Structure to design on (193 residues):
């Protein structure tokens, strides 16, 4: 029989629930020195997975493709907080937002202000295709992609409604990635112009 963890024995009321502002203040005060290793999800600081070489390579190639496809009218944010609610700020691998929709100094963009979030999934499929997808759908983000380097597929979620995406398109290596004009295999296996 598995031994229960300490956290499973702690009452929910005994766990500190962080807000976005509290996290920012803790970072500014030097309390959270390694904040870049965490995401704020439903008031809890969740440790992000370490990035391996496959993730880094796919990230680099995808970043170049996004910059070329969207151009100077858009901001391509990488691993930066996106506000879903007061206590939830996931940090997708990419978040695409029109420049004129970026909030003023110190403000975080709301998920619904963006046009696209992308997660590169090497060993995080369960979360990326589960609770993260649900977070973005609930927030009204129009489009959410998961580039799954393990199974070599892309999962394109669209049309958020009622807390879920109504459309799912599964792309394979030979398929073109929407908006980018390149094949999925280009970001999984090699560079492109």
């Amino acid at each position: 029989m598995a031994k229960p963890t300490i956290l499973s024995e702690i009452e929910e009321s005994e766990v500190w629930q962080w807000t976005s502002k509290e996290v920012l203040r803790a970072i500014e005060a030097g309390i959270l020195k390694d904040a870049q290793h965490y995401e704020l999800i439903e008031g809890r600081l969740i440790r992000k997975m370490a990035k391996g070489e496959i993730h880094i390579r796919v990230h680099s190639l995808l970043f170049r493709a996004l910059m070329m496809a969207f151009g100077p009218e858009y901001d391509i944010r990488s691993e930066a907080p996106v506000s879903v609610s007061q206590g939830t700020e996931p940090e997708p691998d990419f978040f695409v937002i029109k420049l004129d929709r970026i909030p003023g100094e110190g403000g975080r963009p709301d998920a619904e202000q963006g046009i696209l979030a992308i997660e590169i999934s090497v060993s995080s499929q369960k979360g990326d295709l589960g609770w993260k997808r649900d977070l973005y759908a609930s927030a009204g983000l129009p489009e959410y992609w998961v580039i799954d380097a393990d199974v070599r597929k892309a999962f394109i979620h669209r049309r958020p409604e009622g807390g879920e995406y109504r459309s799912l398109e599964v792309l394979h290596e030979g398929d073109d990635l929407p908006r980018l004009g390149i094949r999925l295999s280009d970001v999984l296996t090699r560079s492109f112009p």
Observations:
- The chain is about 25% helix and 25% strand.
- The chain has one domain: 51-189.
- Confidence is low (pLDDT under 50) at residues 1-10.
- The radius of gyration is 18 Å.
